[in-house]
Amino acid sequence: MMKLKYPICCGLDVHKNVIVATIVITNKDGISEYRQKSFSTINSDIQRFHNWLIENHCYRVCMESTGKYWIPIFNYLENDMDVCLTHPKYVKAIKGKKTDKKDSKWIADLYKFDLARCSFIPPKDFRQLRELARYRFKLVCMKSSEKNRIQNCMAVSNVGIASVLSDPFGKTAMEIMSYLPEHTADSIDEKAVRIAKAGNYLKPMMVQCALAAIKNKKQPYFAVKYGRIKKRRGHKKAIIAIARMMMVCIYHMVSEKKPFTPTDYEELMNPQEHVARVVLNENNVFAYLESLGYDSSKLVKRNDN
């Protein structure tokens, strides 16, 4: 027989918008009484949940570590309760008709016999320092990524500062990079610098535009082009092709100040009204010429002469 560890405890099934709580109270004879209640995850309802636990003299709580939803509940209860955070695999219920209430009761039953393995949660001051350290690490990684991008742009623009200076981002290097665009415009292709910087963002942006264009049902021009290319080349190459087509169209529209009028627009949009192309071969060439008003017998005589 399993030994009872916690006569009064609570099991929680935490979701994004609701908390299902089950308090189990076990007497000396081993008979358990269950009290269930649901609360929302807004602060006022979490306060009601906190007061409900105290009213029932329950100071031990067990819940799953589901996503990030457990964190506000844990932060609210940790000062007054002994909160056990456990991995879902340790409190996984038996397969069958699962409900939130059944899951909450199952967690409470496991916890009262101390069968739920609790995870280590550092104190609040440690958690705050850990968040700061992780955020600083993320910023350092972002800084390194930006430095690499700047070096690539300078290399494309034929500015080899990294080959001359030991620190391409030191004081001397930064002064040189500030001086060059202002005083040596003839020796530096500023346009190439701008293109290199924009290139990192232009391609993914045009791909996003292409993905949106092929879903447009009111103007399905690019959707039709995409469908034809996809049959031969696949999705990825078709999207890149559509992005390039859109870029070419934008270039001509801006440089020539003309509206969007591709040469094959009518053919794609109105295939039934468009005149079908005639494929000529040795069997139908004379018949086609006769349909246009030519005398094929004269053409044959000229060819024989």
Characterization of this structure:
With 305 residues, this protein is an alpha/beta fold. It has 4 domains: 8-112, 2-Layer Sandwich (Nucleotidyltransferase, domain 5); 138-188, no CATH class; 199-267, no CATH class; 275-305, no CATH class. The chain is 53% helix and 11% strand. It has helices spanning 43-55, 70-77, 100-112, 124-156, 161-164, 171-183, 190-213, 221-233, 235-255, 265-269, 285-291, 296-304; strands at residues 8-14, 18-26, 32-40, 60-64, 82-86. Strands 3-2-1-4-5 form a 5-stranded mixed sheet. α7 packs across α9 (235-255) and α8 (221-233) packs antiparallel against α9. The longest helix has 33 residues, at 124-156. The protein is elongated.
Mean pLDDT: 83
What is the CATH C-level name of the largest domain?
A: Alpha Beta
Q: Shape, please?
A: elongated
Radius of gyration: 36 Å
- DSSP strand content: 5-15%
How many β strands by DSSP?
5
Work out the helix count.
12
